[in-house]
Amino acid sequence: MSLNETVPTVSPNALGLKVELGRDRPIRLDCGVELGPIQVAYQTYGSLNADKSNAILICHALTGDHYVADPHPITAKPGWWSELVGPGRVFDTDRYFLICSNVLGGCMGTTGPMDENQETGQPWGLDFPVITIGDMVKVQARLVDHLGIDQLFCVVGGSMGGMQVLKWAQTYPERVFSAIPIAAAARHSAQNIAFHEVGRQAIMADPDWCDGNYLKEGKRPHRGLAVARMAAHITYLSEPALHQKFGRNLQNRDTVTYGFDADFQVESYLRHQGSTFVDRFDANSYLYITRAMDYFDLAAENGGVLANAFRGTRTRFCVVSFTSDWLFPTSESRAVVHALNAVAANVSFVEIKSDKGHDAFLLDEPEFHATLTGFLDGAAAHRGLPRQTSGAGP
Amino acid sequence: MSLNETVPTVSPNALGLKVELGRDRPIRLDCGVELGPIQVAYQTYGSLNADKSNAILICHALTGDHYVADPHPITAKPGWWSELVGPGRVFDTDRYFLICSNVLGGCMGTTGPMDENQETGQPWGLDFPVITIGDMVKVQARLVDHLGIDQLFCVVGGSMGGMQVLKWAQTYPERVFSAIPIAAAARHSAQNIAFHEVGRQAIMADPDWCDGNYLKEGKRPHRGLAVARMAAHITYLSEPALHQKFGRNLQNRDTVTYGFDADFQVESYLRHQGSTFVDRFDANSYLYITRAMDYFDLAAENGGVLANAFRGTRTRFCVVSFTSDWLFPTSESRAVVHALNAVAANVSFVEIKSDKGHDAFLLDEPEFHATLTGFLDGAAAHRGLPRQTSGAGP
Asked: Where is the active site (chains A, B) (predicted)?
């Protein structure tokens, strides 16, 4: 019985697609290393139209992957934006051709530190070059080349995905008809770097990390990675959401136990978040991807002036933030909007009222979804996309 | 050469005082265990007046101790409220008699999990009973008995110290003439429990923790404790303070290194916070004291209604919060004030404008210090304390 039969999916390729890129022409990373060939795992939904004008690139977040609307091959949970993908949905698969690839440095099929370094025959580990958001985007651009697409109708993503959206719009303005950075920022803040550093130190403090060589040693730094995830997970929620969801409720008991078991539901929940994460994520990937986010500073990359990143742009932007997001607060989105306004870009800015914190972009937020639909409809009209592309496929 | 000679101090007993309590009458803890005898390490400043009406009990925070205004015996850094203690200062040692004791479960001289369990001859480790804020306060009350003081002129403290202040006011209303809970709350929030749980899991994930028996094994879980401290430290600051202090500034370099060294100053700072903390703090004490804070819920302890905790009180309260404190936000202080108002208590409420986050109560905040002085002056007048007690001492 295949996965397709057990769990409904909108994709004909539920286990994902894979392509090798950069064999003849390695990818020059920001750190100076030439990397190639690399494997890129990706997924598509819907059909590319005849003039290749209906492609939407979805960029995933730190611990996301390309299983946007398919069951995750390890956890079997629905894809992270399942609710948004399908016929008649926000990302209407009758109308748009959706692409999402696992980021460079990831651990779900795209080349990253857990893969074999062909020069040594061993897993890369910490010999893998340190990557940037820009490097992730360069690889995605190669994939888009491979698919024969000149211009993306839209690039969209939340959190680190939103950083990629901004980097796309800066690097390839002609290739991005519209862009939706969600719950993102043009630079990682000191507080966010600090939280990432805690996570990295937790991983590196785990003796099973083995200086990054755990795969060679047949070990996994599960304890450190779980602590990293727990710390990060708090930042994805909001205090009101935690209060509403758990408050000080006890876990299957009437009174505290005067011990260090998970007395409180919030403790049990966090421990669960930590312990399930380690089954699906690679510790070194976590180090590399958090580092890429820390390094992201679009103003610094453009002469210290964020507006320079977008000078002359013709891309249509929709910037989205959430009121209770304290990891990527509205002020960060507003800075992006100000920069876009400074260069007279076409930009909408929507702050969604939500108590769900940073994670709101992954959750059921009707106003958010309506915002996406409305913006995409408008952009599609400007792009001259027909109201419905054939849903029948080739 | 004694410490007194090398570092100026206002105290005649710079290495602290110690007393054994509860030998004849053990202390009944909230968990049901009878504990005793216990050692209590404490410090005093100034002189107790003839009618013993000028004593102020200072309650320290999670990782604080009784070295309020003396150099710390391990770090040699000035005491945590040095600036506030001395002749003519906020806590005027010419006028008041200050007492501060290391909390039960601590690691600076008061009985805690690193001390010897006299029944086994081994360090307590996790056999130490789980304690509460109420238990800490019971021990302090025994110390106050020992000093022959019926009523404290004031009980004051920040953060966990503020929790103790509230517990004092509830448990011994007749013994507390005035009370100043600062940057505190009447219950630990879900988000705060979550951050504590991350810290505990980081400690417990360190193999050198040895299921709590590291002292027997001659080990110390320094890596786990450092990670716990790093995570907690972020919560003590504010995003604006981190941004102002560090922003994205690099550490002694012009460009990022494309590696996992501390490229950013904020990383270096956090690592320093973690690594210096382990020299002065015991990992099991960290588990026990964070647990005590998590358990604190003054409303739950009083029939579910916070106001019940203070019904009939004649204590004069001054509740203080800081605008940028997101660990114990003003809303928590306001809940205390509402409860006090509901029972017509004598209460002042001051929210201090500060960008220093939770740590503001330990830092140079003139408006905060003026608030303390003003409230203490007023309370002293009501208590009939002379404007100046003899500064000459006995």
From this structure: 159 (nucleophile), 325, 358
- Minimal Cβ distance to B234: which of A194, A227, A264: A194
A38 to chain B, minimum CA–CA distance in Å? 20
CATH of A3-187+295-383 among 3.40.50.10540, 3.40.50.720, 3.40.50.1820, 3.30.70.1230: 3.40.50.1820
What confidence tier does B16 reach under pLDDT thresholds 50, 70, 90? confident
Nearest C-alpha in B relative to A292? B258
Per-residue model confidence as pLDDT tens digits over A306-321: 999 999 999 999 999 9
Cβ proximity of B56 and B81 under 8 Å: no
Tell me B77's DSSP state. P
Tell me the ipTM for this assembly. 0.93
- Is A358 noted as a catalytic residue in this protein? yes
- Taking only the tens place, the pLDDT of each residue in A198-220 is 999 999 999 999 999 999 999 99
For A156-204, write each residue's pLDDT tens digit: 999 999 999 999 999 999 999 999 999 999 999 999 999 999 999 999 9
* CATH architecture of the region B193-290: Orthogonal Bundle (1.10)
What fold characterizes domain B3-189+297-383? Rossmann fold (3.40.50)
Tokens in use for B297? 């819920």
CA A216 to chain CA mean position, Å: 28
C-beta of residue A352 within 8 angstroms of C-beta of residue A363: no
Residue A140 carries which side chain, given as an amino acid letter? Q
Least CB-CB distance to A246: which of B190, B237, B256? B190
